[in-house]
Specification:
single chain, 382 residues, alpha/beta, Rossmann fold, 2 domains, binds adenosine-5'-triphosphate, Iron-sulfur cluster carrier protein, iron, YlxH/NBP35, hydrolase
């Protein structure tokens, strides 16, 4: 492969990407420090929060243009509303906050009003306010981390718009066995019981589901799968906070929810919406995970905060929700996921597996104590 391009070449490429107002990205002063390592290019684009949605196609165009440069293996471009510097100072150690102790006022984690799922003690949702923040990657590694903590664990891929579990588990051509009636046997992989709509339909099948169908498909996968004796079932939710997600959060007997966010303020705005959604339906939020928290250069091991590290921790603190931990942006996480052997399986003794296991321990502790963000009581004036 050709040599990776220089920062100047990347900058020149970005000069050709135009904004709707006719300025180019570089001329508009939107491009952060550009970081290039091992053929991969990382940078962020600064914009007003209000313009984020409108500028998503520009972000995609920038990412595609840089990816197409000779010598580029991958590019990761994020939109952010804060200006960020390049390399950070030394990272303070051990900043993870343990889950808060159970307090008398917290409600029990099992919602008795909803019928439980046979064979499953606790169900937790892994959700994100927006797509592409690494929710599925986090969900599978969290599930594996919970299993490593000694919990009998399952994972249900409820992201039926874009199921990724078959790929993440290296089970692309596997079909579940049908037991009597309509009941499906979960597929066992890496010690997890798993189910995904991706096991049932071909990858090419267009997934055009309307909201209500999404909910019934998921409810069916929850209740018509022979989950066996699970301590915890991790549900990888569809991204976003629309009606389908809200109905799901309402209908699935969730013990709690975990929100995944990247550190940028714009992702955090969406994460906050996710949090509010669970509060609305009285599901305790067990905490927030910051994914792609910082970047570790593969060659030098130096740490860079190009995407604005620490935002999720601050946000969790602000919202009174536990911070569950941070996972860096490392190519090994992406590559192992793509290869169907998540990092917690591929490198169980490595630092990244340790990060996920530490997060899993906090989730497990929160489940057993009933800790989580207690929704504020509604005050009604009549
Ligand atoms: N910590 C990480 N380091 C490096 N790459 C990561 C990390 N987390 C996720 N990724 C990569 O980012 C991409 C998006 O991740 P993933 O599919 O888990 O996101 P998602 O939020 O579930 O996306 P979608 O909403 O589109 O389903 C994948 O290629 C994944 O391998």
């Amino acid at each position: 492969m050709a040599q990776a391009p220089s920062q100047d070449i990347v900058t020149e490429t970005l000069r050709k990407i135009m904004l709707p107002d006719g300025r180019d990205l570089v001329g508009a002063g939107m491009v952060s420090d550009i970081f290039i390592a091992d053929g991969k290019v990382f940078f962020s684009l600064t914009c007003d929060a209000a313009d984020a949605e409108r500028l998503e196609p520009v972000r995609e165009a920038a990412q595609a243009a840089v990816t197409a440069l000779p010598g580029v293996k991958a590019a990761m471009v994020a939109l952010t509303a804060e200006k960020k510097g390049g390399q950070s100072g030394p990272e303070p150690q051990a900043r993870n906050v343990p889950p808060p102790p159970p307090s008398a006022g917290r409600r029990p984690v099992t919602d008795r009003a909803k019928p439980g799922v046979p064979g499953v003690k606790h169900i937790i949702a892994v959700a994100s306010g927006k797509g592409g923040v690494g929710k599925s990657t986090t969900a599978i590694n969290l599930a594996l981390g919970l299993a490593a903590c000694g919990l009998k664990t399952g994972i249900l891929d409820a992201d039926i718009y874009g199921p990724s579990l078959p790929r993440l588990l290296g089970l692309k051509d596997t079909k579940p066995q049908q037991l009597e009636g309509r009941i499906l046997k979960p597929i066992e992989q890496f010690g997890l019981q798993s189910m995904s709509i991706g096991f049932l339909v071909e990858e090419e099948t267009p997934m055009i589901w309307r909201g209500p169908m999404v909910v019934s498909a998921i409810t069916q996968m929850l209740r018509e799968v022979a989950w066996s004796d699970l301590d915890v079932l991790v549900v990888d939710m569809p991204p976003g906070t629309g009606d389908a997600q809200l109905t799901m959060a309402q209908n699935v007997p969730l013990s709690g929810a975990v929100i995944v966010s990247t550190p940028q303020d714009l992702a955090l705005i969406d994460a906050r919406k996710g949090l509010k959604m669970f509060e609305k339906v009285n599901v305790p939020v067990l905490g927030i995970i910051e994914n792609m928290s910082y970047f570790v250069a593969p060659d030098t091991g130096a740490r860079y905060d190009i995407f604005g590290h620490g935002g999720a921790r601050a946000e969790a603190q602000r919202l009174g929700v536990p911070f569950l931990g941070e996972v860096p942006l490392v190519m090994a996480i992406r590559e192992t996921s793509d290869a169907g052997r998540p990092i917690t399986v591929a490198e169980p003794d490595g630092p990244h597996a340790a990060a996920y296991t530490a997060i899993a321990e906090r989730v497990s502790a929160a489940l057993s104590t009933g800790a989580g963000a207690k929704p504020a009581p509604a005050i009604v004036f009549e």
